[in-house]
Amino acid sequence: MSKPLKPKVVLGVAAHPDDLDFGASGTMAGFAKAGADVHYLIITDGSKGSEDLNLSSSDLIKIREEEQRNAVKAIGGKSVTFLGYPDGELEVTLALKKDIVKVIRTLKPDVVITMDPAMLYSAERGFINHPDHRAAGQATLDSVFPLARDHMAFPDLFANGYLPHKTPTILLTNFDSNNFVVDITDTFTDKIAALKAHKSQVGDIENAKKWLTEMAGMIGEPAGYKYGEGFVRIDLRQ
Ligand SMILES: [Zn+2]
Q: Cα of 18 to ligand 1 centre, how many Å?
């Protein structure tokens, strides 16, 4: 499991702008520094993520897209695609899977990073995982296997030149458990820069930096790294 990853193309798929930056941006920055093309796919429009009573949803959508673009730049990413599904209402549908399959077949990633849909809640830590996160993770896993792989899934995509693709490795963010820790000591400042870009979400960056530092230290330590990000890694036998 500890075999290092050297992907050429990485695709991160998440529900909201900022999800990937909290969970995986140190790792994604490291892949980019090592020469990979790193892409983000953000499924919802982030239109519910504000407590500002004077801010309209349409303004928030624009603000959050811009913030996500800046975060992608901060980690050396190559592109970000927004699918624009309404925030807070995400369902695991065939239409969503088709949208994700289209991106997978276009970019042909070696590594797909998404959120672990098995993470339903943590009684210990007192939280319920956002349903959009679970839906995004589930739809992405279903898209990687079997839908992106099978040419007879979505025959209209195939007819239009979206050829099947097998993704060898999936990294799932799951904040309770991991079987793979990535050393982000050298990219931790990029991660902080990416989170700084999400001004509408991260009000107090110094406070965020404090708990992110603690968390990265706790995850990294057992693997012998100063800072780490943890994942459930699946290498598909195909
Ligand atoms: Zn989120």
A: 7
